[in-house]
């Protein structure tokens, strides 16, 4: 085959995607969330697509990265890492604190770079797969399962965004107590067939969240349950919750903030601890694994630096007897396809992956990916196996263009201030 896989054009399309009023410990989701769609075009006219965070700090890096990509080949995946190193990160973008709108550990320049690189890596793999007539999972070594299991990602939520805020309505209703959480879980099972459940916690005092998980355990006996307060609890509170829910939890996710606190909790409970906050980079693995601070790492190909880095992470976890699964943040179908391809290739993936996708009624694809029995079938068409719907992409981009800038950077605390003007990001531990 003599196809010319040189990248001749790169298109960056920031979009704003409708998001329901989902609550977390920092605040509430904005009515629209920024995402970035990346397209690479090769000399032969093959287009590859990727997706990542769309906030300004990612766009700032994606633009120079895109310029540097032109003239390179889509198969040069290793070269992406040296290219990323060349892109300067504005120091003001890197704060020694948990991300204001993503709850995915401490921000660093490298993590920002990797979060951008990952979209280009996925787009390269998509283009390569299309050019070769092979699905992305084959380029990653081949799938070891035909379907990938996802869990129902339950959130406390309001019925709607605050009055006066422009937003798309949703049909999920409010969920602010145990009965509301169980009802939401039932909708998830009816609509998508999910059989395991994760509740986003850190929103209400721990006793209320314990009651919600107990109610889930009663409504869905024997089903895997997780609770994730995003580091909102002290070590003592974490241990207490672990004791009270030890008989029903598959794992407790990031009960306390940071490796030291997680190690202390882990030493005092038999409930496995999972994280997408204290192990978010390769550099954080050694200390966490040495201290036995976490038993499951939730990879996220966006900030771990792509699909191949996710496989590397899984191999490290396997070596150390640590479990692996996948974290998610608000995302569209391009990312769900990428997650599904890589998850299908990881032999040691024994927990259902997270996905926000059911919360996103909007997408940029001609055909949405579907969950059946809580699983997504691994696409076998060339590349990611998805196609962009240009009209939808243009409409979501138009929304981004029309925004006055207030929604272009996700900030859950700012969104909460619309309803509660005195709201500040709560200090941790909150309880
Ligand atoms: O597992 C997690 O920590 C997440 O999914 C982080 C997200 O930011 C979640 O808290 C959210 O969407 O509010
Ligand atoms: Mg989490």
Radius of gyration: 20 Å
Task: Output the structural class.
Answer: alpha/beta
Indicate the proportion of strand residues: 15-25%
Question: In the CATH hierarchy, what is the superfamily of the largest domain?
Answer: Enolase-like C-terminal domain
Element-by-element helix/strand order: EEEEEHHHHEEHEHEHEHEHEHHEHEHH
Q: Kindly, what is the distance between the CA atoms of the first and last residues, rounded to a whole number of angstroms? A: 61 Å
Q: Assign the CATH class of the largest domain.
A: Alpha Beta
The CATH topology annotation of the largest domain reads as TIM Barrel
Tell me the number of helical segments per DSSP (H or I, 4 or more residues long): 14
User: Main sheet?
Assistant: 7 strands, parallel
Arithmetic mean pLDDT: 96
How many individual domains?
2
Spatially, the strands of the biggest sheet line up as 7-8-9-10-11-12-13
- Ligand types: 2,3-dihydroxy-5-OXO-hexanedioate, magnesium ion
Helix content: 25-40%
InterPro entries: DgoD-like (IPR034593), Enolase-like_C_sf (IPR036849), Enolase-like_N (IPR029017), Enolase_C-like (IPR029065), GlucD-like (IPR034598), Mandelate_racemase_C (IPR013342), Mandelate_racemase_N_dom (IPR013341)
EC number: 4.2.1.40
Keywords: Lyase, Magnesium, Metal-binding
Pathway: Carbohydrate acid metabolism; D-glucarate degradation; 2,5-dioxopentanoate from D-glucarate: step 1/2
């Amino acid at each position: 085959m003599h196809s010319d896989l040189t990248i001749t054009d790169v298109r960056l399309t920031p979009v704003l995607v409708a998001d329901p009023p989902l609550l977390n410990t920092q605040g509430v989701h904005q009515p629209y969330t920024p995402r970035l769609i990346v397209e690479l075009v090769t000399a032969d006219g093959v287009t590859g697509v990727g997706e990542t965070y769309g906030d300004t700090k990612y766009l700032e890096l994606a633009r120079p990265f895109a310029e540097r990509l032109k003239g390179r080949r889509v198969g040069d995946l290793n070269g992406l890492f040296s290219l990323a190193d060349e892109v300067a990160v504005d120091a003001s973008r890197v704060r020694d604190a948990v991300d204001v709108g993503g709850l995915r550990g401490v921000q660093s320049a490298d993590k920002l770079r990797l979060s951008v690189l990952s979209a280009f890596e996925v787009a390269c793999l998509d283009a390569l797969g299309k050019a070769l007539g092979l699905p992305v999972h084959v380029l990653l070594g081949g799938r070891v399962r035909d379907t990938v299991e996802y869990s129902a990602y339950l959130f406390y939520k309001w019925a709607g965004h605050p009055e006066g805020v422009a937003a798309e309505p949703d049909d999920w209703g409010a969920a602010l107590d145990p009965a509301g959480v169980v009802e939401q879980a039932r909708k998830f099972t009816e609509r998508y067939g999910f059989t395991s459940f994760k509740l986003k916690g850190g929103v209400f005092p721990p006793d209320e969240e314990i009651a919600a998980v107990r109610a889930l355990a009663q409504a869905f006996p024997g089903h895997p349950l997780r609770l994730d307060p995003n580091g909102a609890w002290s070590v003592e509170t974490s241990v207490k919750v672990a004791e009270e829910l030890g008989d029903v939890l598959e794992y407790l996710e990031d009960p306390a903030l940071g490796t030291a606190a997680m190690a202390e909790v882990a030493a005092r409970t038999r409930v496995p601890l999972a994280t997408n906050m204290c192990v978010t980079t390769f550099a954080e693995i050694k200390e966490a694994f040495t201290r036995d601070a976490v038993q499951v790492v939730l990879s996220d190909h966006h900030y771990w630096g792509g699909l191949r880095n996710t496989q590397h992470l899984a191999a490290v976890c396997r070596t150390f007897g640590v479990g692996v699964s996948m974290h998610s943040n608000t995302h569209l179908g391009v990312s769900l396809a990428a997650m599904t391809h890589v998850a299908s290739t990881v032999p040691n993936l024994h927990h259902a992956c997270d996905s926000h996708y059911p919360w996103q009624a909007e997408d940029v694809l001609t055909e949405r990916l579907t969950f059946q029995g809580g699983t997504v079938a691994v696409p076998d068409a060339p590349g990611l196996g998805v196609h962009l719907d240009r009209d939808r992409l243009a409409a979501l981009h138009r929304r981004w263009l029309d925004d006055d800038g207030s929604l272009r950077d996700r900030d859950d605390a700012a969104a909460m201030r619309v309803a509660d003007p005195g709201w500040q990001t709560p200090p941790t531990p909150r309880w």
